[in-house]
Design goal:
Largest sheet: 7 strands, mixed
Helix content: 25-40%
Strand content: 15-25%
Distance between the termini: 54 Å
Number of strands: 24
Structural class: alpha/beta
């Protein structure tokens, strides 16, 4: 058997698969986010360990884990875990959706070597500007930083005792030469860091260490169990969904939203605000357009209306033309295509006839228009996509999938029921590390339950509404 552990923002998920890649069980333990100041988002790394212990422990109580042969890791990207020389955590981890370092990010991004070597904009959520912020605002703590780990790599340290990262997650730090798949001395120096403060690097399907004996005994695992390099959450999701070759892509409707395109070449285009990262497999890369509020926007509306997202979307009926109400989903700023940490959400075009259903449709349309902006940016960056696999919690909404197909004017494929997310992808990476099997053997795409095609009668109306959506963006800065 093989175990995948995904460290998300809202929880840790552990998934167990057999050697036929059939899911045997899954357990989740929740996490909370601390927001002590506006634009701050933090977690205590000790809580990640407790949650992992709880999730894997629950699996161990319901399944015999003695034959687990490999473990893979996935996790929220960009977070900064600062350790001192003794390995102690110096402060709460600064997360991916923390934008306190927007000024430091802009300063780094203005240095020519940053985009040239990393292939990406230095976004406020990336790791490097967080350390520059620490140097400026917490100099005593910064002076004690001996190592910086990404969230899942801190779990690896606990699991194996090894300080290791891998290419896909490291791509989101602004410290990696993404084309060369190695830390860049020039990028590190630009943010006051050194290679000595970085973990070792492996590919996502390679062995990064061996599970500590104490934890193996705690979970009833026998023998020596390797831990794979793993992947950042979106690359791990791509491994789970079999999105590993040129032309393959998915749209993910989670807390954030992602349009993902796999590639066999490094295709940087930072001017588009597209992320160009290493994939979790050797010799492969990917591009992503990222919006910071996808399902999070629907959850916001559900909270305001004291209901649930499922109840909001359950009775929308057939796909309708766009209404007058419009929503800009920039509740936490935005990445692609605007790179604007200060953008705000916006409701416009309200009338006395704007009811709950109209507001729900406006929120879904606004998020989908933002995803369409991502697709435009990806195509400008050289991505080739003829269709998208739909993943994430939002993919349970038939209305939303039909909306996405018509707004993006692309077929959307819904996989046969099952979990093809990051924890499953991590388990696949664990399987590759343990067996030496390659992606052609392991990373098959799921069977397709339905293909949703654009509604040709509505495509023009949504294109017109999308243009009005884009024209509203300057008002989000007011």
């Amino acid at each position: 058997m093989y175990l995948g552990i995904d460290l998300g923002t809202s929880g840790v998920k552990a998934t167990l698969i057999d050697d036929n890649q059939q899911a045997l069980g899954s357990e989740t333990a929740g996490l909370t986010v601390s927001r002590p100041h506006p634009n701050w988002s933090e977690q205590d790394p000790a809580d990640w360990i407790l949650a992992t212990r709880h999730a894997v422990g629950a699996l161990a109580r319901s399944h015999d884990l003695s034959s687990v042969g490999g473990i893979g890791l996935s996790g929220q990207m960009h977070g900064a875990v600062a350790l001192d020389a003794a390995g102690a955590v110096l402060r709460p981890a600064i997360l991916w959706n923390d934008t306190r370092s927007h000024a430091e990010a802009a300063e780094l991004d203005a240095k020519p070597e940053m985009r040239r070597l990393s292939g990406n904009i230095v976004f406020p959520g990336f790791t490097a500007p967080k350390l520059v912020w620490m140097a400026r605002h917490e100099p005593d703590l910064f002076a004690r930083v001996a190592c910086v780990l990404l969230p899942k790599d801190y779990l690896r340290l606990w699991l194996t005792g090894e300080r290791v990262s891998e290419m896909s997650d490291a791509s989101g730090t602004s410290w990696l030469d993404v084309a060369g798949r190695d830390w860049s001395g020039a990028l590190l120096s630009a943010s006051g860091m050194s290679r000595a403060q970085m973990p070792a690097l492996v590919e996502g399907s390679e062995v990064s260490g061996v599970l500590r004996r104490e934890l193996a005994a705690e979970w009833g695992i026998t023998g020596s169990v390797v831990v794979a390099g793993g992947a950042g959450d979106n690359a791990a999701t791509a491994i789970g969904a079999g999105t590993v070759a040129k032309g393959q892509g998915f749209v993910s409707l989670g807390t954030s939203g992602v349009v993902f395109a796999a590639s066999d070449h490094f295709l940087p285009a930072p001017e588009t605000a597209v992320h160009a990262f290493c994939h979790a497999l050797p010799g492969r890369w990917h591009q992503m357009g990222v919006i910071l509020s996808a399902s999070a926007a629907l959850e916001w509306l559900a909270g305001v209306l004291d209901t649930s997202p499922a109840e909001l979307t359950s009775d929308l009926g057939p796909l309708q033309p766009p209404g007058s109400a419009m929503f800009l989903p920039y509740l936490s700023g935005e990445r692609t295509p605007h790179n604007d940490a200060l953008a705000k959400g916006l409701l416009a075009g309200l009338t006395p006839l704007t009811d709950r259903a109209a507001l729900t449709r406006a929120v879904l349309e606004g998020v989908t228009f933002a995803l369409a902006d991502n697709l435009t940016a990806l195509r400008a960056a050289g991505a080739e996509l003829d269709g998208l696999l739909a993943l994430g919690g939002g993919a349970r909404s038939d209305y939303w999938l039909r909306l996405i197909a018509s707004v993006l004017d692309l077929p959307v494929m819904l996989p046969v029921g099952g979990d093809y997310g990051a924890a499953f992808g991590a388990a696949r990476l664990g399987m590759m590390a343990a067996t030496g099997a390659g992606s052609d053997e392991i990373c098959a795409m799921p069977a397709i339950a339905a293909e949703i095609r654009p509604d040709p009668a509505l495509v023009p109306a949504f294109a017109e509404s999308h243009a009005r959506f884009r024209a509203l963006y300057p008002a989000s800065r007011a």
